[in-house]
């Protein structure tokens, strides 16, 4: 080989493993994306738009939700149950604590405190407040992280609870 020739790069047969920095960046990115998804979800509850696009933005198609008004399976059922539950209120504010997130590849769990303030739809400015714990299972999809299962466990309430239709559960 003369001075003008270059050697062909050596062929590699295996992909290089991610470095510690790349793994850490991925972990931090996943945590940020999950935290953002959960914060956007809570904020969206106060906006009152629970359509198909809303459901796709937050839930997997086969999502499960354990809510004060009962347990439902499937994204359409989750969206309908949340829509029905939120219709009991005129206005709401949902606040979530910083989630504790555990990552496992393309799956994760998150656990966070939740404080929800509601103005009842059928009363003269009656207020109902609940505090609880939200436990969420998430999966990475082609569209980003989505909620595969969620459970809101109410720990305490204060004020006048909403009038819930018979058979729909209770707060």
Report on this structure.
The protein is of the alpha+beta class and 171 residues long. The protein contains 3 helices and 7 strands; from the N terminus they run ααββαβββββ. It has helices at residues 20-45, 52-58, 75-86; strands spanning 59-67, 70-73, 89-96, 100-104, 107-120, 127-141, 144-159. A hairpin with a 2-residue loop joins strand 1 and strand 2 (70-73). It is elongated, with a radius of gyration of 22 Å. It starts with 19 loop residues before the first helix and ends in a 12-residue tail after the last strand.
Describe the structure in brief:
This protein has helices at residues 20-45, 52-58, 75-86, and strands spanning 59-67, 70-73, 89-96, 100-104, 107-120, 127-141, 144-159.
